[in-house]
Amino acid sequence: LLQTRHAENKQDFCSIAHPDQTASPTESSLPESQKNELVQAGWSKCWSKRENRPYWFNRFTNQSMWEMPILGQHDVIVSIEIGIPVTPTTPRVPISPVTPRAKPWNSTTGTEDKPGQPASALYRPTIIYWDLDIQTNAVIRERAPANHLPPHPEIELQRAHLTTKLRQHYQELCYQREGIEPPPESFNRWLLERKVLDKGPDPLLPSDCDPIISRSMFREVMNDIPIRLSRIKYKEEARKLLFKYAEAAKKMIDSRNATPDSRKVVKWNVEDTINWLRRDHSASKEDYMDRLEHLRKQCGPHVTAVAKDSVEGICTKIYHISVEYVRRIRQAHQTLLKDCNITEAAEVQDRLVYCYPVRLALPSPNHPRVELHFENDISCLRYKGEMVKVNRGYFAKLELLYRYSCIDDPRFEKFLSRIWCLIKRYQVMFGAGVNEGMGLQGALPVPVFEVLNKQFGVSFECFASPLNSYFKQFCSAFPDTDGFFGSRGPFLNFSPASGSFEANPPFCEELMDAMVTHFEELLEKSSEPLSFIIFVPEWRDPLTPALNRMETSAFLRHHMSVPAFEHAYRSGSQYICKKEEMYYKAVHGTVIIFLQNDAGFTKWEPTPERIQELLAAYQVSQRTLGSPVPSSTSSAPTMPSPARSSLGNPQGTERERLRALKTLHFFVDNFYAGHTYHRVVVAYRPIHHFHICS
């Protein structure tokens, strides 16, 4: 007889099928040898009195399945689980935290499976861009639950509104004080740069940074003063741009508190340039651009000096507004949670365990209703009129991640509201503009991940999100919303003792520099196998500090470069974009760097054969660019012209131009035009049942 798994579920199990149960055609057609193999693998057919139907149980793994297991896949869940908690098996060292089984959730209808009804199959996307069956090899010291306040749609909505207001304040300050529009993506990079330094309580907005003036925001605003220099194609455009720059520099030096010497130098160069423009009408485009570069070198330092206080004022003002907004959000959140009892955290033992998702110390309050409906292949979630959308395939992925990672919601009562908070958080972080922030979330192609796992044992992403991750174990920006979907928290707060990791950080210089510092600290103190494979843009004009430090690191084992336009990234909007827009060509070279300690080098050495496999994976992704469907012959969309020239940087860096190019993507226009919708609204209620309405 099978051991009873739980006292309250004794009536659900027996060691043989129900006497009235007739064998299914599939089972009857099995040869005797195949049946014996199932028995030897630990499988036996049982009868559930509660569900009134048979199920399969494995006495070795305590795994339960409604459908007959497939030979060779006994350790893989290939259908909906029954959802009855089981007694964990004896742990092995390192210890892997046990996640209780969740009740089945039907992603097709958005409802919970009810007793007595046939189990509906999960929505299975035809094309997937992840592999959630790969187990982790990352080992960490066991840690206490995080002290983040649990996410709630009401608080997330307030945070979204205040962040939008902060963006508007930034736009108004740039226009009022400097007469310019905010540099593209500068607010997003400000958030990334601030969170490297921030010690405040809010997961998104900074409130405790030193220094309060952001180097990233200061640099990008200053680059666009006195005017933003756009990409030039024709001679007349170059002539107009030179004239506009000269006029803007003269106007700024006249209206600001400049020294007499600065006024003299700027006015003389401006007058000389204007006279040259009036008398020389046969100049070429290159002549105009050379003259512009000369004028900028002469006037740039003086213009920067008079604008310095004003730009610092913009940075300071935005920071102080952010501090006030964090105070409001925190106060509202604490008011909402004041009736929640804070449970005492369990004592943390000093032992090695396989890494596990972030757990919150505070219990979650009851969540409000979030409505779900489907528009063709898009899942739409609405709360108080605010709608977020995600592809149904990615919705199914989030469901699986939630099953694997969440331990406080076995009935999926908070599932929809937590997805709404998750997607809303990332939308707010990267802005509401078309294509805004998408370049900061690009991911490696699937064939590259497959080779990284096969050849180098990689099972963990250092910079990802539940929306764009390939593995089910990853680090991400927001532990409070992402932890329920598998996140191990921010990577700079993650300290593995061993494992093989992939790192493709957002292209923010300050974040990449902090990343390198963290890598070297981890490699220095660990004697276990530890390996980091890093993918960063090849910015060498000038050379970024992070790239320079990695190429001269004592832990460097190998590095190579993949040329621009010869490889691709997966779009940051992959969870909502079309299949043919899933990949886009990289407009810059990518440097691949292997940082490993001695034990990691011994275990995952970047041999020539392995490196060749990795480069070949990029060639595979090139052949499938534009659509992952093998039968498709469409090619990848080429990147549109950049909105900004390298002249936008006083040092003439290629980096700023490539960064602007990186964020331009083809997006879906009029995506829903001409479609017929089959609309089902799921009214989500926190009382253990669902109300389905048309």
TrEMBL record:
Residues 1-11 have a biased composition (Basic and acidic residues). Residues 91-101, 627-646 have a biased composition (Low complexity). It comes from the Eukaryota. SMART domains: WW (SM00456). Residues 21-34 have a biased composition (Polar residues). Residues 1-34, 91-119, 625-653 are annotated as: Disordered. GO terms for biological process: methylation. Its EC number is 2.1.1.62. It is found in: Nucleus. Residues 37-71 form the WW domain. Pfam families: PCIF1_WW, WW. GO terms for molecular function: mRNA (2'-O-methyladenosine-N6-)-methyltransferase activity; RNA polymerase II C-terminal domain binding. Keywords: Methyltransferase, Nucleus, Transferase. GO terms for cellular component: nucleus. InterPro entries: HSP70_C_sf, PCIF1-like, PCIF1_WW, WW_dom, WW_dom_sf. PANTHER family: MRNA (2'-O-METHYLADENOSINE-N(6)-)-METHYLTRANSFERASE (PTHR21727:SF0), PHOSPHORYLATED CTD INTERACTING FACTOR 1 (PTHR21727). Belongs to the CAPAM family. This is mRNA (2'-O-methyladenosine-N(6)-)-methyltransferase. It comes from Oncorhynchus tshawytscha.
